[in-house]
Amino acid sequence: MAEKKATKAAATKATKAAAPKKEVKKAAPKAAAKKAALVINAENAGFKAGDVYQALATAEKALTVAEIAKAAKISNEEVILGAGWLLKEGKIAEADGKIVLA
Length: 102
What we know:
Elements: H1 2-18, H2 42-59, H3 65-72, H4 76-89, E1 92-95, E2 98-101
Antiparallel strand pairs: 1-2
Helix pairs in contact: 2-3, 2-4, 3-4
């Protein structure tokens, strides 16, 4: 009887080994969204100030940081960088939590 059990076990292993393996699909790794680093130098700050100024001049009204970022197609951080430049020069002012041309 021991031989029969061994034969059955061997046959079962052979059947399992011969059976086609299911192909397991692995999810493709998501590409990490690369966030552009904000370069802080006089040239970049001046360009961002120009973007902010143009967005405000085009809108002809007070805008929030998010509204300026959307209009100028730049990030909120870049709006703040440009707004700091313009505030220092006295070209913009704050009105009810929004930024307006001075």
